[in-house]
User: Fold this.
Amino acid sequence: MADQNNQQQNNYIQTEDKPEEVLEERTHVETYWGRIWRRFTKNRLSRAGLLIVGFMVLLSLFAPFFSPFDHTNTELRRAYHPPYEINFIDEEGNFHLRPFTYSMEQTLDPETWARIYEPDTSEKHYIHFFVRDWEYEVLGLFELDWHLFGVPEAGNYHMFGTDSLGRDMLSRIIYGSRVSIVVGIFGALVTIIVGTTVGTISGFFGGAVDMLLQRLTELIQMFPQLPLWMALSAAIPADWPAMWVFMGIVMLFALITWTFLGREVRGKVLSYRDSEFVRAAEIMGAGPAYLIVRHIVPNVLTHIIVVGTVTVPQLIIAESALSFLGLGIQPPMISWGVLLDDASTLEAISQYPWLMIPGVFILVTVLGFNFLGDGLRDAVDPYSDEG
Assistant:
């Protein structure tokens, strides 16, 4: 018993000598953003969404590196060429560590005059990684000629087939991701800026300002989105340069979608406007701009981020729909919607089904952003299940 008392007394003395070190070892204060990240990473779907979005953004940023061909090169004799098969086992049953493909021999059906492609198994063409081919600019900074993969011996390998002009579909899909994803991200950024500004001003000042802004918001929300997008996009002059059309589409999407975020931000600001910490800062002489920037907007920031991630897939679908109908992005600029326009007929779908592959990329990207947005929403919600 005496030994136990002595031990407790020694522990007490050691604790008194180094209180800060003991407290640091025994306690761990979790920050707000650390808590959000912990809750976010516990959700498998949110992690999958983050990986998908990260991969798609990386694919769009370095599109030339991932593209085996220049997306503008045409080869009419290879028009509507079906996808090549990737093989590891040859005709003799031998396994090869390096994937390879066979050349495709083209013949014509004497009755229907349709192209028929059959593999020529007499010669193998191995797929090489990190090959050197046509030159391109990396983010407009310097030139490079390295590509992720290619078939140097054969000179052609179309994993997703070709289009009506013999252009490689995989390369065009990768380049099309630049426009589709950038439209979604930039449109969401403009939506966040406009919606946050209008919602904050409306909720903070109230009165006649709130009445005017809310009636404007309701006026825009009265019209169905898709018909309104179609009507406004049809008003964009056809003789505008491709970049002007691109910026017009981005601003068009932001002009319509900001209203939903504006309403939600207004409700959040109204709840924080009469809170104790805002009133205390106001009594101490803080002005409206200081209160908005330092106290109100930071508390609404997490909700804004969540709404922004959910807005991106909506804009990607909207751009693809308008471009599919011929009212959005116009050639020579390409997007996933422009590529899907080639598969707009039953004949194309039945004879050339690989033209619908851009729709798979749209689906995967939209799911990725939705998983990411749902994960962020659950992570910032203090009442969600910790699991």
Notes: Residues 12-18 have pLDDT under 50 and may be disordered.
